[in-house]
Amino acid sequence: MTVVNVALVGVGLVGKQVVHQLSGATLSKLFHITSLSNSKHTLLLAPGTPSIPADALLALLPPSSSPLPSSSTHPGTSYSPLNPASLISTLSQSAKQSKSHTILIDCTSDLEFTTFYPAAIKAGLSVVTPNKKGFSSDESLWQEILEAQNAPGAGLVYLEATVGAGLPIISTLRDLVKTGDEVSKIEGVLSGTLSYIFNEFSKPGKSDGPAPKFSEIVKIAKDNGYTEPHPADDLSGSDVGRKLTILTRLLSASPSSLPSLPTLEKGFASLPTETLIPAALEGIKTGDEFVAKLPEHDDEFETLRKKAEEEGKVLRFVGVIDREKGVVKCGLEKYPFSHPFASSLSGSDNILAFHTQRYNTRPLIVQGAGAGASVTAMGVVADAIKVAERRGVAVHL
Predict the structure, then answer these.
(1) Which terminus has fewer CB within 10 Å in the chain: N or C?
(2) pLDDT at 79
(3) 222 is annotated as an active-site residue
(4) Crossing angle of helices 238-252/170-178, nearest 10°?
């Protein structure tokens, strides 16, 4: 096998970057994009169709808001409505006929599409994705995905980009546990948005003058595109909760002499998560109205910051998996000025510390940009390379 086929679903910012990275001079010799899909349409490339440059390929897929073309002007390409079950069947049949492996890359943020992962895996397709939804929702779907990998001829599953974008967080965890290390605790700042907000709001050292107001920092973050359109989506902590759920489930799958971690039947919804949304602002429909009313609660946040500072500490919104105590939680924690979460973080970086039997004096720390289209796409493409290598493709990089 010399080439791996790729079917990409979701052509937003990350999806477009994936297409460009796979179309580079080196990887285009190893990967052949055979289909592109958005929420409504699928572009299919017939077997034997030569690779199409990234921009030209992306231009062939009409926006989901446009009607589906009846035919394509480019030789060897055709259109169909997006039907996940039908797409999986088509890809599986084509892979068997061509004797080439196919990777289904899901760059959507759609929970419904993830429910098709088990069928895809059983059909021999590998799944690579930055989509957190399927791995952090109900336990039943998580178990279906795990069980599907035991089917004869099953595909592989790689999800590095779900937790740290391009940061090697999941691969580090897997390497630790598969080589027999005992992970006792994982803690970290897993939201680039909340990292930026608290790096600006709660700095190490005594403040000389008035500290910036919490609402002002949130507004700047929103104006600069660091937050979701509605900042409450970030301040709810749900994104951190989803990432923590994934790490918890991966860690729980490994044998350990330490207490069991919670099952999280409802995924991230079962996780104790501290929300930073003031009670009076719950349910506000627009981000602009939320930001306009947030200053009314600056004193509440300033009280928390001031108390931490008096203790020689900073505030950080973190996720914690404490296996010795059998506890998983996410929320505001205080760290000394000298702690890496206080002294080493800047901007919107993520940072994660693995406390293990081997790394028992000082934790193993992974730090860097945990969001952004190009680094997330890098995490996805790196996973695709791992699949290709495991399926016999010589990736001499």
Answers:
(1) C
(2) 94
(3) no
(4) 20
